[in-house]
Design goal:
Keywords: Signal. By secondary structure, this protein is of the alpha+beta class. The chain has two domains: 1-31; 33-171, Proaerolysin, Chain A, domain 3, CATH 2.170.15. It has helices spanning 2-22, 27-30, 85-99; strands at 39-56, 60-61, 64-77, 106-119, 124-144, 148-160, 166-171.
């Protein structure tokens, strides 16, 4: 009789140990989710864009030519708002890797600028400098108990590229 009791006890213990695994419930799922509270950023929809800088000429009504010659600092900033400095740094680092080009919160360059453009007759225009940028979507997610992904926010961002590519064009 002792032999049957020992076999029955062993079988019962074996069933209790194997049943969760057989049902797809691992030991980790039975324990608290260690990722709870972790924050993740994902980058998508990357595309080339142009971001206006602070350099622009006065307006001219055509016909005529606008000449812009000035020694100045060209500056532009990313469109990301509502984040801490540390969070913005993490987002731009992740975006730089995902997009394959270094982007940042801001960009500036001191130089001598000299450009000319013809304004058509009857139109009023000015020359505007644009800095190469990247537009992208950033999604912030976090892990919440019991072990679910929760989207905190999604934002569209345009960030300047850390290079010296510019575009001058006539604008209204």
């Amino acid at each position: 009789m002792r032999f049957k009791t020992a076999v029955a006890s062993t079988a019962l213990a074996f069933t209790a140990t194997i049943a969760p695994a057989a049902l797809g419930i691992g030991a980790q799922a039975l324990a608290a989710c260690p990722e709870v509270g972790q924050v993740y950023y994902s980058i998508s929809n990357g595309a080339k864009a142009w971001r206006a800088t602070n350099l622009r000429s006065d307006y001219l009504t055509g016909p005529g030519a606008i000449s812009y010659t000035k020694t100045a600092t060209s500056e532009t900033n990313a469109s990301l708002t509502g984040t801490t400095t540390a969070e913005a740094g993490a987002i731009f680092a992740k975006a730089s890797v995902s997009l394959g080009v270094q982007v940042g919160k801001s960009w500036s360059k001191s130089d001598s600028w000299s450009y000319r453009a013809d304004v058509p007759a009857g139109q009023t225009r000015r020359l505007q400098q644009y800095k190469e940028a990247r537009s992208f979507t950033v999604k912030k997610t976090t892990i919440v108990a019991p072990c679910n992904v929760k989207t905190v926010w999604t934002k569209n961002v345009v960030a300047p590229v850390k290079n010296n590519n510019f575009l001058w064009k006539l604008t209204t």
